[in-house]
Amino acid sequence: MRIFDPHIHMTSRTTDDYRAMYDAGVRAVTEPAFWLGQPRTSVDSFLDYFDGLLGWERFRASRFGIAHHATIGLNPKEANDPRCIGVLEKLPRYLAKDGVVAVGETGFDSMTPEEEFAFVRQLELAGEHELPAMVHTPHRDKEAGTRRTLEIVAQSGLDAADVVVDHLNERTVDMVLDSGSWAAFSIYPDTKMSPDRMVTILQRVGLERVMVNSAADWGHSDPLTTLYTGRAMLAAGFTEDDVDRVLWRNPVEFYGRSGRLVLPDENASAPAADFAGNSLARGEAID
Amino acid sequence: MTQPNAGLDTGLDTQRLAQQQERVRTDPGALPVLFAAAARTLGRGPASDHDAAGDPDDLLHPRLEDLGRRELLLAWRPVAGAPAAAVEVLADLYHHGDADERRAVLRALRDLDLDSVPAAALDMVRDALRANDTRLVAAAVGPYASEHLPDGEWRHAVLKCLFTGVPLAAVDGLERRRDDELVRMAAALAAEREAAGREVTADTRRLIGADAGAPADTAATDTKD
């Protein structure tokens, strides 16, 4: 099973996780910029974080045979902090970089006017930089938040297929797929979505424009829930090709819309035991 | 280290490169955006037929994107003004750059007429030498460092290569600058490794003269300094 985790916060994870992910079949990840658990107090704090996502974390992942990409943006929670909003002016320079495959995470947390301002501006930036957008949906009042999210996407002028709406559930998936955007699901140990519920959703809505991620971070989470979902799909009668579509080809298709995805050479040998012999750095861009 | 050649027959998109070179000559302000996008627009990947297994991270060999960025910098430099003004722009490119962009700046430093502003140019070299990304460390120990970095810092840079597995073949001017103090430091490292039952690399042995005939190290194996 080859796995592309389209949403995972590796800066919050250990090297043990990288090893376990590689052993589980994870060969590529996208790491969205997000909240650190502790509020930032300045724009510079964001810039160091972005530099880390595009620098050290990408290198760190490569040591373990995993291709690392990032989405760059101002997360909804901190869009409410006047000390942080200035980072919007700094985004264009980051959005020009090779490892950036989307704008995000953006979207709503508490549905404030400040969040909406930052969300709309970042959708504009996605258009200006010909990048997809990675949109977070709120944990509280999710249905209303998702509905408003889709209205704003529709007004943005972006192609709906350039937008992924994440953290969905049984109540929000249909409106997202009906809008033409991508539907993403964060599989958590106890909360947002479980592998078995995910399988039931896939049986109902099909495999088109659907992505599954672990969204693993510093909270109670598990970087292997993509693997568990793949196994649950097989146990429920989906084919290996179905699993490959959801766990690999779909995220490759979505983030490939950036023209900046660099994936491991299919014919390259696996990383050696010391993870030094990988050939990820010589992958070719997928347009 | 291996010096990049003009790179024009290696797989770069030469037509696009010529357009971009003309652009930075007439509009130097376009450099940051073109520089950031160079891998996507001019070419990406290994630039020579070297044995990839022996240099998996291209610590010794320039990649196509290095060559493309280098050509942009060389075209831009004559219109960039005095060295003090040029190094300011380069520092901006470096500090706003991802690891690939930083590496390209470091690799080009020696050829950008910056000899009169070593303090400013060395700021970038020192920043890279504090990193644990072996691609940055290897790019930092190029000719600009060997010509300008003070002895103490230069010795620590060489030692850092030994620690992080950057092959000493990446270190410019090693034979010229190798001195008794560097040999003492490397010998102490070897003694520490032997006491711990760990391997002493061929590069370390060669540097201290303990194994002059050993083949040079190639692949990087460790990132912890």
From TrEMBL, chain A:
A molecular function (GO) term: hydrolase activity, acting on ester bonds
Stored InterPro entries: Metal_Hydrolase, TatD-like, UCP005295
SUPFAM superfamilies: Metallo-dependent hydrolases
The entry's keywords: Hydrolase, Metal-binding
Pfam families the record matches: TatD_DNase (PF01026)
Keyword Oxidoreductase: no
Taxonomic superkingdom: Bacteria
Family, per entry: Belongs to the metallo-dependent hydrolases superfamily.
Protein's UniProt name: Hydrolase TatD
Automatic annotation (TrEMBL), chain B:
Region Disordered, residue ranges: 206-225
Biased composition (Low complexity): 209-225
InterPro entries with a match to the protein in the record: EboA_dom
NCBIfam families, A to Z: EboA_domain (NF035938)
Listed name of the protein: Sugar phosphate isomerase
